[in-house]
Amino acid sequence: xxxxxxxxxxxxxxxxxxxxxxxxxxxxxxxxxxxxxxxxxxxxxxxxxxxxxxxxxxxxxxxxxxxxxxxxxxxxxxxxxxxxxxxxxxxxxxxxxxxxxxxxxxxxxxxxxxxxxxxxxxxxxxxxxxxxx
Length: 133
Ligand code: CO
Known about the structure:
- The chain is α+β, with helices and mostly antiparallel strands.
- It contains 3 helices and 8 strands, in the order βαβββαβαβββ.
- The chain has a single domain (2-131), classed as Roll (2,3-Dihydroxybiphenyl 1,2-Dioxygenase, domain 1), CATH 3.10.180.10.
- Strands 2-3-4-1-5-8-7-6 form an 8-stranded mixed beta sheet.
- The chain starts with a strand and ends with a strand.
- 20% of the residues are buried.
- The structure holds cobalt (II) ion (CO).
């Protein structure tokens, strides 16, 4: 069902300031940045092999990511697994009573499907599933 880790998302106060650690100290490269309007975040993408770190900076005070930052401070936000068939994955998880945030996949601006599993079902970790094909 799960092919690999697609990305790990980290919430930061300020993307520029966060580069001091992730790029200057750790030596990762930022491939690109984009604004994701639906989530109200600016995202910096830092590839590591086939996976990447995504740094998220909220751009609106009322967004989910902004509230997370206000409540818990900067830190790991979610881990994303790539799956072959997200519809089948969600059906399978529902069948074993895993609490889902999205029972039906959402569709990103690029047409790719994704869904979140509730942290209560995953030892406190917000898990994203992502279908690339
Ligand atoms: Co994600």
